[in-house]
Amino acid sequence: MYNIINTNGKNEDFKKLCILLDDNLNEIVGGEKQRSQYNQYNVLNDIHDVILIYDGKLPIACGSFKKYDDECAELKRMFVRKEYRGKGLSKQILSDLEKTASDQGFLYMILESGEILKEAMTLYRKSGYEVIANYGVYKNMPESVCMKKKLRG
Q1: Into how many domains does the chain fold?
Q2: What CATH number has the domain bearing residue 51?
Q3: Quick check: 49 and 100 in contact, CB under 8 A?
């Protein structure tokens, strides 16, 4: 059985998983140079709501959100170690994060991803996220796909 904890962006295990996430993204998109424009938008200091899943003492999955504006929470840093994929962990994290954001008064969850991230895009579409116009810092990044989901009402 897995153990789920709520924490924040300062958690060392979360930081370790984010390094693995970045390595995984670099592998998918062809190196850090291809992703360097995104690094500045993934700073962990702004993240106060994190969910970690452990297998024993090993951190195996994470996800988080941060405040985007008064209505929207922005999903950030979703990751599951390769050997634990296909077990529903990302769906569990996403559901828990949506509930937490809703409980905090957010009306919507927004996110930025990309079609190259096939598993992530499938998860988001199956979870009710719809493609929207690229927002904020992603407006002029054509490889970005921004999505939104109403959390309540």
Answers
A1: 1
A2: 3.40.630.30
A3: yes
Rounded average pLDDT over 90-94: 97
Q: Which two tokens stand for residue 98?
A: 């949506």
| Percent helix, percent strand, percent coil in the chain, to nearest 5 | 40, 30, 30
Please give the torsion angle defined by the CA atoms of residues 153, 105, 18 and 12, in that order, rounded to the nearest 10 degrees. -140
**Model's pTM, two decimal places?**
0.90
- β-pairing, 145-150 with 108-113? antiparallel
Task: Spell out the residues 6+ positions from residue 91 whose beta carbon is closer than 8 angstroms to its own.
Answer: 123, 127
User: Is-contact 56 39, C-beta < 8 A?
Assistant: no
DSSP string, 44-86: GGG--EEEEEEETTEEEEEEEEEE-SSSEEEEEEEEE-GGGTT
Under the banding of pLDDT at 50, 70 and 90, the label for residue 42 is very low
Among residues 117, 91, 131, the alpha carbon closest in space to that of 34 is found at 117
